[in-house]
């Protein structure tokens, strides 16, 4: 039995006239009659009572009409769903969320994306910076967001888009002695405890970046304290038990009790990069469409690029 048989049957059941049904279906009446006989033979049931004057459904035909219409409706829905998925207008998209830094670009991008693709189901997962790539590679998310230093080595099987690149600032308690200054020298932080995000096993990219800043000035941080979340980091800072560095955020102010100050750095000092990262061979339309929306939102031309992740 084919969908064609069901379509022919439904039209004939509605018209109850072979000639009119054949015209609607654009087939010859004898061909339509043969198709219905084949269908009845396959079902081992008579669907129509026929005579020279009229055609009417049997009780079996009435039951089959309801089921045939349901099958055709489902088939049409499947076609619409597939076409929507191919064009990126339907489907699912799982994104990693990079703590407060996501607030710099994610809300506006999500709004832009939802306006064009309202039927794509987007889910957000709060993930630490060093777990983002692992969850991407395990297919738990489709787009990751990472903290990088300019010039970090490439990951060959991934593509990336640089969302922004900014000089580091220092975040510290408003009661910290250095909070009264308009800008802070890296040497003034050398005796402080530097709070760095950890991947749970060893210090990750954040700590490597902090060390690189100090090394550029022939210095070493007195102590690096790993923390496993942004919330823990803020709690330590509010209690004046350490400071941290990060990129300057213009759309996300520091939490209450914390202030940010520029670090006096040179042009050659390391800079923070925030990147969107996804699988190079990912042909998912929602992924491509979201990256396009992200590029538009960050004022860049829409063109996928290869590169380090």
Overall body shape: rod-shaped
Count of discrete domains: 3
Widest β-sheet, arrangement of strands? 8-12-7-11
- CATH uppermost class of the largest domain: Alpha Beta
The count of helical stretches stands at 9
Q: Could you say what the CATH architecture of the largest domain is? A: 3-Layer(aba) Sandwich
H and E order: HHHEEHEHEHEEEEEHEHEEEH
CATH topology of the largest domain: D-Maltodextrin-Binding Protein, domain 2
Q: What would you give as the CATH superfamily of the largest domain?
A: Periplasmic binding protein-like II
Q: Using DSSP, what is the number of strands?
A: 13
Q: How many angstroms does the end-to-end distance come to?
A: 52 Å
Arithmetic mean pLDDT: 86
Rg value: 31 Å
Describe what this molecule looks like in 3D:
With 309 residues, the chain is α/β, with parallel strands linked by helices. It has 3 domains: 3-86, Winged helix-like DNA-binding domain superfamily/Winged helix DNA-binding domain (Arc Repressor Mutant, subunit A); 92-163 and 279-297, Periplasmic binding protein-like II (D-Maltodextrin-Binding Protein, domain 2); 168-270, Periplasmic binding protein-like II (D-Maltodextrin-Binding Protein, domain 2, 3-Layer(aba) Sandwich). Helix content is 37%, strand content 23%. The protein is built from 9 helices and 13 strands. It has helices at 3-15, 18-25, 29-43, 59-86, 106-116, 132-137, 205-216, 230-238, 285-297, and strands spanning 48-50, 55-57, 91-97, 120-126, 144-149, 158-166, 168-173, 184-185, 193-197, 223-227, 244-247, 258-264, 272-279. It has a 4-stranded mixed β-sheet with strand order 8-12-7-11. Strand 3, helix 5 (106-116) and strand 4 form a beta-alpha-beta unit. The longest helix has 28 residues, at 59-86.
């Amino acid at each position: 039995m084919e969908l064609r048989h069901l379509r022919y049957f439904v039209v004939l059941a509605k018209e109850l006239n072979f000639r009119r049904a054949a015209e609607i279906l654009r087939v010859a009446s004898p061909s339509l009659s043969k198709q219905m006989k084949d269908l009845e033979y396959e079902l081992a049931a008579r669907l129509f009572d026929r005579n020279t004057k009229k055609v009417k459904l049997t009780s079996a035909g009435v039951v089959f009409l309801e089921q045939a219409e349901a099958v055709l409706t489902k088939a049409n829905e499947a076609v619409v769903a597939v076409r929507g998925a191919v064009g990126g207008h339907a489907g699912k998209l799982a994104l990693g969320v990079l703590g407060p830094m996501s607030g710099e670009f994610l809300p506006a991008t999500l709004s832009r994306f939802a306006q064009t693709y309202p039927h794509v189901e987007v889910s957000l997962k709060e993930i630490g910076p060093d777990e983002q790539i692992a969850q991407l590679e395990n297919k738990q998310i489709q787009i990751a967001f990472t903290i990088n230093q300019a010039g970090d080595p490439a990951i060959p099987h991934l593509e990336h888009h640089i969302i922004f690149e900014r000089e580091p600032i220092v975040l510290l308690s408003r009661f910290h002695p250095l909070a009264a200054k308009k800008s802070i020298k890296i040497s003034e932080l050398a005796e402080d405890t530097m709070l760095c995000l950890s991947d749970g096993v060893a210090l990750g990219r954040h700590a490597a970046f902090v060390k690189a800043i100090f090394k550029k000035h022939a210095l070493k941080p007195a102590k690096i304290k790993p923390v496993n979340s942004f919330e823990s980091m803020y709690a330590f800072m509010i209690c004046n038990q350490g400071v941290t560095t990060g990129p300057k955020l213009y759309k996300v102010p520091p939490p209450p009790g914390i202030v940010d100050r520029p670090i006096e750095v040179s042009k050659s000092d390391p800079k923070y990069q925030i990147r969107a990262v996804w699988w190079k061979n990912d042909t998912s339309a929602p992924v491509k469409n979201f990256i396009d929306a992200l590029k538009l939102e960050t004022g860049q031309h829409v063109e996928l690029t290869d590169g380090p992740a």
